[in-house]
């Protein structure tokens, strides 16, 4: 009875929502309401939403009027603009609504996680994965502290993994069309998820032929056409999804990368860079930054390799490239977050090995999330927010490893009890 209750998706959803709402209540109680209505939105999504809500179109990622932008894809800024329209621009109510929306997305990710785990390794694995997500510190903190698309991206990442696994062997055309629409939404929200598309679609094509995955891919591409056409009309050059890759590559690969915080090099904080962005225009500015980054990478390969190694560590610790120092010296809450991230990373590795050794057909689509997706962060910037879209997959793999360990331990215990009973029987002269 207790096991059935603990495995209830409704209970897991309730716990996840309760933890996130409790953190929101605590967070807002320690800050001025006027500040909460403004400061969380003073980044690119909030600035673009401000322009949209004010009737200036998809523009001005730095609040100052710099004209149309393709800094990011449209879904999340449009959601924030809707929040501004309903609850007021830069108001405390808008903050609560935006945080509540993020909490809804983060909580909802429990469902595809549960369904994926149940299909991959049984109901116990599904429940364990959903519980891990419910209590995962990153998934509790980010919806409240970050007015970015991270929580929605995590929901989409979990849904893409579930849909990929659920579609294996399916011949239903509507389901494949829905899969393409899901990919289209993901690309219009978090384009970095697109690096997974060829691997997941390729796995489906390998199993079931290429026609249905090609249909889904075509639908996903069609979802991007209006945005790409808008970008071409505005910038007179091809910008399929977003323009910002050149800047991110430069921030992570220049002579000052390790000397100052990455934000100090960013136009949102640096007046000099903002002036250069305004002078050149967005596309020319991004092209210049990309060329500067490539030049530095060619001239200093050993330095870049060191940067990448540090970003690799920071990616899997949740943001720090010095995890030992963090565990020994940081405040207790940060130590807990760091330890949870390290355990999640180790659990993901263990989960991949478990599924591969058991010859599970699902080891490959689950493994590409932690293996392929972070490669962009190794080259550019690493933070907990950038990794968040694949965090549900990490916890699913960790749950697979944990439940397999528990199952094997119970089996070994049963064998020991049987051997002990047989030994006792032999000692008392009991035979067959």
Helix content: over 70%
- Please indicate the count of domains: 1
Radius of gyration: 24 Å
Report the strand count.
0
Helices and strands, in order, run as HHHHHHHHHHHHHHHHHHHHHHH
Identify low-pLDDT runs: none
Structural class: mainly alpha
Distance between the termini: 37 Å
Largest sheet: none
Number of helices: 23
Name the overall outline: globular
Which percent band covers the strand fraction? under 5%
pLDDT average, as an integer?
A: 93
Could you outline the blueprint of secondary structure elements for this entry?
Elements: H1 2-6, H2 9-29, H3 33-36, H4 44-53, H5 75-87, H6 92-108, H7 110-121, H8 123-135, H9 137-145, H10 150-167, H11 173-189, H12 197-208, H13 211-235, H14 245-252, H15 271-280, H16 282-299, H17 301-317, H18 323-329, H19 332-357, H20 363-372, H21 375-379, H22 384-387, H23 391-427
Helix pairs in contact: 2-6, 2-8, 2-9, 4-5, 5-6, 6-9, 6-10, 7-8, 7-10, 7-23, 8-23, 10-11, 11-13, 12-13, 14-16, 15-16, 18-19, 19-20, 19-23, 20-23
